[in-house]
## 1
Amino acid sequence: MRLGVLDVGSNTVHLLVVDARRGGHPTPMSSTKASLRLAEAMDSWGNLTKRCADKLVRTVDEFARIATSSGCAELMAFATSAVRDATNSEAVLTRVRAETGVELKVLGGVDESRLTFLAVRRWYGWSAGRIVNIDIGGGSLELCNGVDEEPEVALSLPLGAGRLTREWLPDDPPGRRRVAMLRDWLATELADAGAEVLKAGAPDLAVATSKTFRSLARLTGAAPSGAGPRVKRTLTATGLRQLIAFISRMTAADRAELEGVSSDRAPQIVAGALVAEASMNALAVETVDICPWALREGLILRKLDSEANGSGFIGGADDPRTVGDADNPVSVETSARNAGR
């Protein structure tokens, strides 16, 4: 079947059209992106501005039409950190649904982590053993660890590259002192999270997902995207430290000239590199493999699995997966509906 996945993130809105079937490899057919920078369009009360909401509605409507003209049998639409964090998220979601007919589901951070882990596990297979995965978004950082398709530990922290750039590195280029301060702060912030993730067991394979990691790997010598998704790409702690020393002295405009860094990502790549470094240190890994699959592929795979058991694309009434603590579990569906309130 042909599916559309509409991802409303902190930086971009991304429509991925794939041909997919249960037990098969999802085949990308087209990819359409628009840079909305939702996380930067909050007012002083934490609301998405009307101008930003207008742009979101227009973009969702346009992308939904593209999905229809592309022959998609279904459009899975979801929003992550920026919409999740907005004080007026419910009003914005209601408006999107009323004006476009598209119902955006807001994913909780733990949902993001678990679905990304599913994609990573399917990509590397059972022979990879225990996997830890790091995913850096614009608003949040996800960490997880497990030996099955459902991670034993899944965390989401408000340590995204865009968020930290706005809060810590407003100058261009960022000052050396601010970079050092953020580096020290991240080490402290991630110490407990790293220990919690590793409590489940030492990894046989350390993996990283997200555009931030793909850019960092490319900047340290990994193969370009044109070489295809199956080329092995890695990022080392040593290479990352050397890269940070280089790019932290550059302006965003100069960083945008580097191969593998888009103009949209250039302003926040320094903060992203610092989060990557701190995460790898906290998890005691020297090298991460870059996985081409992440959240969108995880949603597609979960959808195909759910079709077989009759539940929804994230989970269903009979779905045993839960988020929350052991004494007060919350269903994935409920978490998605209530996120951002």
## 2
Amino acid sequence: MSLAPVVPGARIIGMGSYQPEKIVTNDDLAERVETNDQWIRDRVGIVERRVAADDELLVAMAAEAGRLAVKDAGIAPTDVDTVIVATCTMPYPIPNAAAQTADRIGIVAPGAFDLNAACAGFSYAMGTAADLIRAGSARTALVIGAEKLTDWLDWDDRSTCIIFADGAGAAVLSAAPDAESVGVGPVAWGSAGDLHAMIEVRPHNNALAQEGQAVFRWATTKIAPVALRAIELAGLTPADIDVLVPHQANLRIVEAVAKRLRAKGAREDMVVADDIVHSGNTSSASIPLALDHMRAAGRIRSGDVALLIGFGAGLSYAGQVVVCP
């Protein structure tokens, strides 16, 4: 038996993202439900969000983000051997998004599968891809978080319609040539299945529902320790983190997690993602969207050490330290 060569780990070599053109403001939503711009800003920090057209497919958004990530990596689509799409909003479970997405990009005969860990999906998929590469099962993996949450909303439910949005973000992972080049740390993950009813699609109307206050209390107390564990697994300290990219669930949750990490030694100049302000909550797409937007805006640089931490329905959570490409 000829085994694949062992590699020390994976690194990110490219990123890309996509958002629909349509912008929905808080004032737009106030025309439908009892709310206003200041109420939404105060509670979740959102100013506007992107909404896909009725005929805009999730796989189309995933493919565009993936195409841009492959281009950014400076490789050909045929160099990719594995495609993972993290999503919880495909209209039907069969066929999966990954194989269709790969075909649209021009990736030939890859291993392709979907992963559903809801808002933690991108971190779950990154951890899975990095482990596949380290084990020799993959050499170059395209990881995409893509959601069309607006297909699953009750637009008369103020607790959800003001929060969720659509989009896709992607990263290309490749084998690191040596230990010093490893750029994806071990994943710290877990779940609280006893709390699954906090966020769920209700069968009577197939619409997403959540217990907002309960989710807020859980996330603001339970997520910072997971983030600290991810830092520990990477062999680092909170002071080593240049960039914090939590799932963009709610700006108040993001701020609370950052505050807890700074209390444990994270630097005051640690850059904290706030993409939710203009993108809304895009579930598994939120972390790669935020990373790509921050990079484009010059808020992060190549080589920065970033802490990713996703959490949401399930309840599932996961985080890892990565080096920005």
## 3
Amino acid sequence: MKLPPTSIGESASRRREVLRVLRMSPDPMSIAAIADVLGVHPNTVRFHLDSLVGDGQVEHVELDRKGPGRPPLMFRAVRQMDRGGTRHYRLLAEVLATAFAAEPDAGAKAVAAGRAWGQKLDSSLEAVPAGTTSAEEAIDHLVNMLDELGFAPERRTADGEQQVGLRHCPFLELAENRTAVVCPVHLGLMQGAMDAWGAPVSVDRLDAFVEPDLCVAHLASQPAAT
């Protein structure tokens, strides 16, 4: 069924009105009842209900009715937050970064938070058996992990030192304004992952924006466990 020509904004607004009516009703409602409340044609309501049902925001209700005749289709709002609504994760990140920045020893706390994050990444990314990884394998795993996270990493060597260059930052705008918080989180992330893998190499430091399109992670051998 096609809705009569209208703008996308008007259609979205009408859909929200249909959902609002159902949310305010203590009982399931028929198409005719919704149309009566909104003062629109039942076909308009039916069109928007199809979309709302498809999005999981509204559900059909089976009436326990006996007797002749086909009972009308009844609908009710699914009682949950709107999962199709707007997200503002960048705003949340800015709030958290601002709070971190105001803390004493903000850099150290940011590294610790990153370490905790890195140690848990095995559950969502490719797992590496702890204690069975050589230095070369660990660096390869680190590069692969950073690539999956969107850092566009590249292996580098300078003055005999192994490095990982980062050509992209998934939190670029935030990192530019909150370098002292965001970059230590990234350092801790890499250190935590290496710790979780039991790698004989770790990330000694992270130099942010050494070039306009480059951050550099410096790698160092870990002392052997005694």
